[in-house]
Design goal:
By secondary structure, this protein is α+β, with helices and mostly antiparallel strands. The chain contains 6 helices and 9 strands; from the N terminus they run H-H-E-E-E-E-H-E-E-H-H-H-E-E-E. A hairpin with an 8-residue loop joins strand 8 and strand 9. It is elongated and about 55 Å long. The structure holds flavin mononucleotide (FMN). Flavin mononucleotide binds next to strand 2, strand 4 and helix 3.
């Protein structure tokens, strides 16, 4: 059971990491101090992503993407992080629910759930479409079945009649591109880049006295400030 009591309530003895049961314990002695942080949160993120990869976490680039529609109604789903540059880049169908919500309300939050090493990163910021050239460059690196799948699922997030209907769509697309070596990116498919204004690094610590260090800036033209949050 996941304890909810305050630190020192007694739960610490049974649950020494303070990390929810069901996950593995973080590596002993892990902590996050201000002195350890890179001044650039994107460099700090790359360090933690490297750790997640090196430690063999499943799908280390999977992140929960939370969006909201024009009325503020939230929704979330996993997507894969494909690039970290000045922001966080992911790819999807622009006509999907998330795509339409980002059109109406171009702000989002990302959450990397690295349970097995007792870490979480939460990112917030503004989102914009990447350039068509960037999308085409990435699409060309995808395996052919994934490229065909993007064409077959033209109306991602919409109700379809059946599995058979979807399989027929895929077969039609396969036949359509059979003579072409290169499958182009569908016009309705592409990348988004989230430019962060807040990035929180969360490290599990004993007794639920976790480390939470957040970088925050007013916008992309302002410097980052680092602040510690109560766990
Ligand atoms: C681990 C994982 C990774 C995923 N990666 C992507 C992705 O990179 N892009 C994408 O469009 N959907 C991805 N999906 C599927 C989405 O979670 C979702 O079902 C789909 O994008 C439709 O979402 P929407 O209806 O909220 O727009 C992934 C799902 C999982 C479980």
């Amino acid at each position: 059971m996941v304890g909810t009591g305050p630190a020192g309530s007694g739960a610490a003895a049974a649950e020494p990491s303070g990390f929810p049961s069901g996950g593995s314990l973080p590596p002993a002695g892990h902590r996050l101090d201000e002195a350890d942080l890179d001044p650039d949160p994107l460099a700090q993120f790359r360090r933690w992503l490297d750790d997640a990869r090196l430690l063999g976490l499943p799908e280390p680039t999977a992140m929960v993407l939370a969006t909201a529609d024009g009325a503020g109604r939230p929704s979330s789903r996993h997507v894969l992080l494909k690039r970290v540059d000045q922001g966080f880049v992911f790819f999807t169908n622009y006509g999907s629910r998330k795509g339409r919500e980002l059109d109406a309300n171009p702000r989002a939050s990302l959450c990397f759930p690295w349970f097995a090493i007792g870490r979480q990163v939460i990112v917030e910021g503004d989102v914009a479409k990447i350039t068509r050239a960037e999308t085409e460059e990435y699409f060309a690196t995808r395996p052919r079945p994934s490229q065909l799948g993007a064409w077959a699922s033209e109306h991602q997030s919409q109700v379809v009649p059946s599995r058979e209907w979807l399989d027929r769509r895929y077969a039609e697309v396969e036949a359509r591109f059979a003579e072409q070596d290169v499958v182009p990116a569908p016009p309705y498919w592409g990348g988004f880049r989230l430019i962060p204004t807040s990035i929180e690094f969360w490290q599990a610590r004993p007794a639920r006295m976790h480390d939470r260090l957040r970088y925050r800036r007013a916008d992309a033209d302002h410097p980052w400030h680092i602040e510690r949050l109560s766990p």
